[in-house]
Amino acid sequence: MFRLSFVVVFSVLCSGLAHAQEVLPRPEGPFTGKIGLTYKDSEAVKPELKVPATFGIEDAPNILIVLIDDCGYGQMGTFGGAIPTPTFDRVANNGLRFNRFHTTALCSPTRAALLCGRNHHSVASGVIGEAGTGFPGYSGIIPASAGTFAETLREYGYMNAWFGKNHNVPDWETSLVGPFDRWSEGLGFDYFYGFVGGDTDQFHPALVEGKKRIEPPETNEDGSPYHFTTDIADKAIRMMRASKAVAPQRPFFVYFATGATHAPHQVPEEWIAKFKGKFEGGWDKYREETFARQKKMGIIPADTKLTPRPDSLPAWDSLPEAERKVYARMMEVFAAFTAHTDHEVGRLVDTIEEMGELDNTLVIYMAGDNGSSAEGGINGLLNEMTFFNALPESLDTKLAAFDTLGSDKHYNHFPAGWAWAMDTPFQWTKQIASHFGGTRNGMAMSWPKRIKAKGELRDQFHHVIDIAPTILEAVGVEAPAQLNGVAQKPIEGVSMIYTFDDADAPDRRTTQYFEMLGNQGMYHDGWMASALRGIPWDSESPPIDLLNMPWELYHIDKDFSQANDLAKQNPEKLDELVKLFFAEGSKYQVMPLDGRKTERLNIDNRPSLTQGRTKFTYPNLLRLPEGASPDLKHKSHTISANVTIPEGGADGMIFTQGGRFAGYGLFVKDGKLVYHYNLAGVERFNIASDKKIPTGEVEIKAVYKTDADKAFAGADVTLFANGEKIAKGRVEKSIPNRVTLDETLDIGFDTGTPVADVYEMPFKFEGQLDSVTIELE
């Protein structure tokens, strides 16, 4: 009797779990059948499929989240930009545009907030992990107490797949040994195909499938030349089709996070040709024309003012003709990159429609994880690694590369003037959390079965943390109180579903702080206080007292673009908001404030697999990301290997880190030992033996002796074979901050791109190589 009653009570409790906060994964219930001595006098209970219907969720929607990287508010045609984006138009016209949607001003913080439904500092992602510090809001380690909505959906039977960029793995956890808690599977996904890090070469990406690093295919599935965005679209389409063919009872959640339009701006040549000559008017004209379109389309209020160009950015007409020529070409490439990306997203939407699933698919298209990027500096870049290492590029080198911009020859990035133009009508760009140029992004949602409006605008103030609760409400579940045995932080976002049927619904997000790299902002009840720490196109800005910033004040309800600073007219309101910022900052782990930029990349207070070690022996054919590799930058060290070279000789790579856009390598070419140092393409230093190295068993050694342990220090490099000095030369200037953003340290072969264009990839060593040893002095 007791057992029967318990079963009935348990069943009643389970029937309501879909609508109540609960413990996930669910505790196992008691066996409700009968167990006798044999199967003949026993009653089996068939396990239920793990699908939404099992939990009382009927007709659960599929979900597609599209997240474009480094995309400005005025970039895409859907929000008035000059670049046609028909897929974004399609989603908006089939549902809603949101014109006051916000992000965090930087990539991985926005992505952590998106997945967790909590502010970026609350989930330890106050800055990119590579610049993390040992404080709760900045460690880069998403805590177990902030589970993702994907983990919740998976427990209700969703098939979750992630394609593209994952920049939420701590730098030191990106190697083959993990740990994998914050890789895609640990964040709630069944499948991952993309790259782990901040950006990647679109033609030679640092591909990962699941947890395994792989080399990209030679072509896309249709036989066209390989491109990363097309590749991840191919894989997403295949996954969606397979999912519905095999298990139509399971809805899919596809997170499609492109590497575009983040640098490098690389795109097939035929797409660049579509935009030839379209940007010769320059960035000032682009802003004026985009602003006019935004007003005509009703994207911005009729009384919006166009904010002026910052004094630190040059007027387009003031530039020499040669600069205008190069910069216009860089914008053509960027426009092509944007249009190509939207086209590939369109293939996903087409597939969902062809499968008959579009009516019950919630599509969320986010045009940016922050504002457009000004990290190309005033003059634009052929190679983004020069920005991260404070290395100059000449105009002559840009002119020489005019015809190959956008190809795999370059890791290019357009000038800051174009980034500012992409963020029309707002001030500033990516990194600047104090102003909407860094945080306001175009966003559209469609879900025909639930959103009956077509092409309407919603102007409620919302933030990326609101996406997770929106999805959970759409499915009909709540975030769990406990996940994987860990009590969960409350969700800090609010669902946006209240806006679906009521364009005039009062805002439910009335307060939101902003902070990034010392830039500070506080929104409350239609007002915004803003404090700018530094200019985004400078790698470092002069020191400033972060506790006494020069704050600005805007009445956002009447000033859409933050054009009219009211700080002097209303000091009481400003004081109220500044105090609220510090209160919210204390609540959400924003403190301590930190305005450092590149300096934080070198701070020695993050976990390290190499700290305290001076000797590393790595096996043949190993690949290691920089975050898990020994730091050899301006450090004296020796690279040695015992190899066996057959009578006919053996070429190939012994050791390399990085590739075409920065790095160094020790290899055998034409029988001679070579050490090549690539200073981000600005300079190259080549030390090679005059004669071939011996055959048989040979000890190869390269001794790197730095002039000083400081940024840019030169070094003497000496090469040895069997203890005999066979070459000596100089590296006159070294990489100071970061060798590579996406390539690996490779032993016995070279993946990604070549460090020197004198060999064919993967340049696997042809002799016998067991291991390579690196010793730091």
From TrEMBL:
<feature type="signal peptide">
    <location>
        <begin position="1"/>
        <end position="20"/>
    </location>
</feature>
<protein>
    <submittedName>
        <fullName>Arylsulfatase</fullName>
        <ecNumber>3.1.6.1</ecNumber>
    </submittedName>
</protein>
<keyword id="KW-0732">Signal</keyword>
<dbReference type="GO" id="GO:0004065">
    <property type="term" value="F:arylsulfatase activity"/>
</dbReference>
<keyword id="KW-0378">Hydrolase</keyword>
<dbReference type="Pfam" id="PF00884">
    <property type="entry name" value="Sulfatase"/>
</dbReference>
<feature type="domain" description="Sulfatase N-terminal">
    <location>
        <begin position="61"/>
        <end position="477"/>
    </location>
</feature>
<dbReference type="InterPro" id="IPR017850">
    <property type="entry name" value="Alkaline_phosphatase_core_sf"/>
</dbReference>
<dbReference type="InterPro" id="IPR000917">
    <property type="entry name" value="Sulfatase_N"/>
</dbReference>
<comment type="similarity">
    <text>Belongs to the sulfatase family.</text>
</comment>
<dbReference type="InterPro" id="IPR050738">
    <property type="entry name" value="Sulfatase"/>
</dbReference>
